[in-house]
Amino acid sequence: MKNDMDLLKKQLKDNIQKLIDSDDLKDARQIVEQYKGTDKGDIEAYSMDAVILIMENKFDEAQEVLREGLNIDESNFDLNYNLGYIYEQKKNFRQALWYYNRALHNCGDENAVKEINQIMKKIQKEHNTKLIDDRKKIIFFDKGDDKFIWDIINELSEEYETRHIRVTNYKQIDEGMQWADICWFEWCDELVGYGSKLLIAKEKKIICRIHGYEVYSDFIREPNWKNVNDLIIVAPHIRRIFEENTRNIDKGNLRIHTVFCGINVDKYPLNIKKKGYNLGYLGYINFKKNIPLTLDIFKKLHDIDSRYKLYIAGQFQDARTLAYFQYFIKEYKLDKSVVFEGWQNEKQKIEWFKKIDYMVISSIDEGLCFAAAESMVSGIKPILHNCEGIKDHYDKKYIFNSVDEAVKMITEEKYDSREYRKFIQDKYSLDKENFYITKVLDRLNEGELK
């Protein structure tokens, strides 16, 4: 059985290589993704995936793939070399030197050693850059919901040696904390509850970030907060609720920071739009997102003009909400006007934005709301429900208090794609988020560990 599987893997790899050699990159990438799904521990698959992305000049995507591979095998020659190459192309020469050097230390080919030495000498001479080999180590833990953290990892990797772990068993936390100087828990869930109680937690610098749902659960009572140095909370009302619900807990010298999430604006092309008929919803669909209100708004619009359509791109997380959604569409005969399109990956999402004129967010609780911010930088008019947290982030002209107000915002003539994009650029750029996170880390690195 094992021999048959090994033979199948070899055949798949051979097919991928043939497709790459013939410049059939799209088909090659599809097979690589299928292969990675069958064996997530095969480093060669990550290397081939990254090479394809590099050939397509998709350096950011290739960078993430290489980092995922290095989480499995940090000493792999190909992964380190290719990451060095990417940083060289992005003119981040200090990072390029660091990864080329790590590739050098894991190279068994004399010709490759000579080539890498020549590359490194050329970078040092032409760009007056020195190799820095004593960087602090920072590790990021989550259970797989990592969409908010990768831009931060990429930014911090310029100064720190970074790892990212999608935790499937607690042993990974033990090993990761042993390796790192700084341990970042991306959500306040059972992972930080476990990690903060380890003996080694007293010796490490620990950061936790709360996004929202955690403060409404018992998770915030689980960590040993006396072993956590810094807590980052992404919205003022979430911070208030956290402090109210943990006021009887000894949190030691925990420092709490409010740092809004940031958007990598460069990822999203601006589409100049005008008043239209296509409403959109993007993201998970659960009780918090209040889809019934979105449906009420849409039905009133559809009664006014049957040209209105509602496109929903996301994933239902609640069976009762799904049942109501299906009932509503059937009851009001909207099956041709409400289109459910499922979850969209990054590339699909950018294409999806092109047809959307209004992003309707009817939530009962929100912080920045990435779907709103992403749509605004893409030129889409936001229609945002007045819930706790939303006014901390958005101008009142984007906020509605009733179905009638939402309908008026959608049917009025005012529409300014450039204004929506500029609003996010000015207030919630990734650069701002990274600036404040760097300040937290700078303070954390001052003085002793605790």
TrEMBL record:
<keyword id="KW-0328">Glycosyltransferase</keyword>
<protein>
    <submittedName>
        <fullName>Glycosyltransferase</fullName>
        <ecNumber>2.4.-.-</ecNumber>
    </submittedName>
</protein>
<dbReference type="Pfam" id="PF00534">
    <property type="entry name" value="Glycos_transf_1"/>
</dbReference>
<dbReference type="Pfam" id="PF13414">
    <property type="entry name" value="TPR_11"/>
</dbReference>
<dbReference type="InterPro" id="IPR011990">
    <property type="entry name" value="TPR-like_helical_dom_sf"/>
</dbReference>
<dbReference type="InterPro" id="IPR001296">
    <property type="entry name" value="Glyco_trans_1"/>
</dbReference>
<dbReference type="GO" id="GO:0016757">
    <property type="term" value="F:glycosyltransferase activity"/>
</dbReference>
<dbReference type="InterPro" id="IPR019734">
    <property type="entry name" value="TPR_rpt"/>
</dbReference>
<keyword id="KW-0808">Transferase</keyword>
<feature type="domain" description="Glycosyl transferase family 1">
    <location>
        <begin position="269"/>
        <end position="393"/>
    </location>
</feature>
